[in-house]
């Protein structure tokens, strides 16, 4: 049997956990500041400038010019719509005017009307989608062998038999007045789609997008044509046409630039046989020999739905500041992308990484050292000594330049005294006395730039 591995003492695990917690707590208070490095690389510079240019074009052209993001906006105006229909046509048997062909819609559907016996029909029950109040009798239907519940209502009930009178010849010349007014409460702006004139302008004009924009009198044939439909086919089975009025207003300009834009399209499902078209029913009542009689008419027609939407915008300082700040921040994406390329795909990525990232150990001075620190910040005192050097005891070779003798900076060892910190190497590397007598270095080394080398 294999011997059981000894478990580490509980105190060691607790000490390791405390060290990890102290390290995380210490790292939480670290401060990171960017370090600027100029890389002489034409390809990387082209990528950087192209990314910056694209970001600037996006914000200047799309965000500020197209979207007008410097404006405060309000969507969904308060709106009212009034419609009037005018026109006269005739069929084989009569003349039809507005009172004949303009009616409110009605839907009729009978459910659970079949029965086998009287017990299936509850007397007095009223089906709101049926044709009357049930009498409690189960009677044979008009056609076929099945039975249905008898109702007290108009006889006969609708059975689909009708006389078709097509009004599609003159109907395209019917006119519809669509009176619309909108209001944007945030900006206290109101406007209507009818021109404010005292003459008989509305009695003589019809809508034209160029010459008569504020004459909202539309021919029915024009509406159907703009919706891309054939009037004869649409009038045969009926349909729903939407008139969309869009009010997009830039209130930084004058009110005359806020104009309605009309569009038209069919709203009902044209290619679905089960629900295609539009129809409604209405009745006409009269008396014959003292008995009240009615004529039930199922009419196929064209329904007009007017839909109003829009948005208004006006300059505001808050969205302008937010979008400008976003644009300036987004330019940093170019630096992020180029840094990623520089540190990942370039041949000397390790050299660039070594130059880009430095770790500075802040010295812990006594309270009486504040004047020295202030002088150091002002560049009037020598910088603190380096934490470490690669080989301080090796003398500089004769003829070697001063820049070549500078060893690369090394990270601070954990056992370094608290007075040490990482710094960029000095102009020259001194032999043994520099490393063995750090107390003499403060009096011998000078750095007129102070912390400029950090």
Automatic annotation (TrEMBL):
<keyword id="KW-0675">Receptor</keyword>
<keyword id="KW-1071">Ligand-gated ion channel</keyword>
<dbReference type="GO" id="GO:0001614">
    <property type="term" value="F:purinergic nucleotide receptor activity"/>
</dbReference>
<dbReference type="GO" id="GO:0005886">
    <property type="term" value="C:plasma membrane"/>
</dbReference>
<dbReference type="Pfam" id="PF00864">
    <property type="entry name" value="P2X_receptor"/>
</dbReference>
<feature type="transmembrane region" description="Helical">
    <location>
        <begin position="324"/>
        <end position="346"/>
    </location>
</feature>
<dbReference type="InterPro" id="IPR059116">
    <property type="entry name" value="P2X_receptor"/>
</dbReference>
<keyword id="KW-1133">Transmembrane helix</keyword>
<feature type="transmembrane region" description="Helical">
    <location>
        <begin position="46"/>
        <end position="64"/>
    </location>
</feature>
<comment type="similarity">
    <text>Belongs to the P2X receptor family.</text>
</comment>
<comment type="function">
    <text>ATP-gated nonselective transmembrane cation channel permeable to potassium, sodium and calcium. Activation by extracellular ATP induces a variety of cellular responses, such as excitatory postsynaptic responses in sensory neurons, neuromuscular junctions (NMJ) formation, hearing, perception of taste and peristalsis. In the inner ear, regulates sound transduction and auditory neurotransmission, outer hair cell electromotility, inner ear gap junctions, and K(+) recycling. Mediates synaptic transmission between neurons and from neurons to smooth muscle.</text>
</comment>
<keyword id="KW-0406">Ion transport</keyword>
<keyword id="KW-0067">ATP-binding</keyword>
<dbReference type="InterPro" id="IPR027309">
    <property type="entry name" value="P2X_extracellular_dom_sf"/>
</dbReference>
<dbReference type="GO" id="GO:0004931">
    <property type="term" value="F:extracellularly ATP-gated monoatomic cation channel activity"/>
</dbReference>
<keyword id="KW-0547">Nucleotide-binding</keyword>
<keyword id="KW-1015">Disulfide bond</keyword>
<keyword id="KW-0812">Transmembrane</keyword>
<feature type="compositionally biased region" description="Polar residues">
    <location>
        <begin position="437"/>
        <end position="446"/>
    </location>
</feature>
<dbReference type="InterPro" id="IPR001429">
    <property type="entry name" value="P2X_purnocptor"/>
</dbReference>
<protein>
    <recommendedName>
        <fullName>P2X purinoceptor</fullName>
    </recommendedName>
</protein>
<keyword id="KW-0472">Membrane</keyword>
<dbReference type="GO" id="GO:0005524">
    <property type="term" value="F:ATP binding"/>
</dbReference>
<feature type="region of interest" description="Disordered">
    <location>
        <begin position="384"/>
        <end position="454"/>
    </location>
</feature>
<comment type="function">
    <text>Receptor for ATP that acts as a ligand-gated ion channel.</text>
</comment>
<dbReference type="GO" id="GO:0098794">
    <property type="term" value="C:postsynapse"/>
</dbReference>
<dbReference type="InterPro" id="IPR003045">
    <property type="entry name" value="P2X2_purnocptor"/>
</dbReference>
<dbReference type="GO" id="GO:0070588">
    <property type="term" value="P:calcium ion transmembrane transport"/>
</dbReference>
<keyword id="KW-0813">Transport</keyword>
<dbReference type="GO" id="GO:0033198">
    <property type="term" value="P:response to ATP"/>
</dbReference>
<dbReference type="InterPro" id="IPR053792">
    <property type="entry name" value="P2X_RECEPTOR_CS"/>
</dbReference>
<dbReference type="GO" id="GO:0043235">
    <property type="term" value="C:receptor complex"/>
</dbReference>
<keyword id="KW-0325">Glycoprotein</keyword>
<keyword id="KW-1003">Cell membrane</keyword>
<feature type="compositionally biased region" description="Pro residues">
    <location>
        <begin position="406"/>
        <end position="416"/>
    </location>
</feature>
<keyword id="KW-0407">Ion channel</keyword>
